[in-house]
Amino acid sequence: MIDPEINEILMQNKEHFVIPASRVATVQADNSLTHAFLVLTKVRYSKIPVLGADDQFEGLLSMPMITETMLGLEKLSFDKLDTLCVGDVMQTDVATIENPYDTEDVLHLLVDNPFLPVVADTGEFTGIVTRREWMKTFNHLVHTVRG
Ligand code: 2BA
User: Fold this and answer.
1) pLDDT score recorded for residue 73
2) Does the CB atom of residue 24 touch ligand 1 within 6 A?
3) How many domains in the chain?
4) Of 25, 33, 75, 146, which residue is 20 to 30 A from 39 by alpha carbon distance?
5) With a 6 A CB cut-off, is 16 part of the ligand 1 pocket?
């Protein structure tokens, strides 16, 4: 269990915990892989959320998931990029959180995941919690706690 006094200091930074959906780069599950290839190249993030109808969270997409479909025996082929869509290749076994302020849960999951999608109980994607923002929170903590 996290010490309540420590948790209180962590929560002083709580307005920065979530990057809202409006500021997160995403693709739609029914987008072609050609479109997704261009988006990932442009935004430069290694993995981004995939959304379905009504902003429902569907999964995550990275460039290797796309380039895997281009591998031939001796050369790369772009042929499948227009016939397959994001939903065909995305990762669906994804750790998500409903409550971004559940410190215990978030810290455990951020060990193995660089970011966590925040998903409401309705399935709607509302934003992400990133390691970067949490590192800033820790920085604040270690400069605040006195022995
Ligand atoms: P990565 O793309 O592997 O990025 C690792 C770290 O590199 C990021 O950590 C950030 O500090 C920096 N970084 C990478 N691309 C950046 C860019 N275009 N602008 C600014 N900084 C960039 P975090 O900020 O902790 O993000 C962790 C992961 O969360 C990222 O891993 C990415 O997969 C995802 N992510 C973060 N912000 C995002 C956003 N606005 N839209 C979509 N995905 C995002």
Assistant:
1) 85
2) yes
3) 1
4) 75
5) no
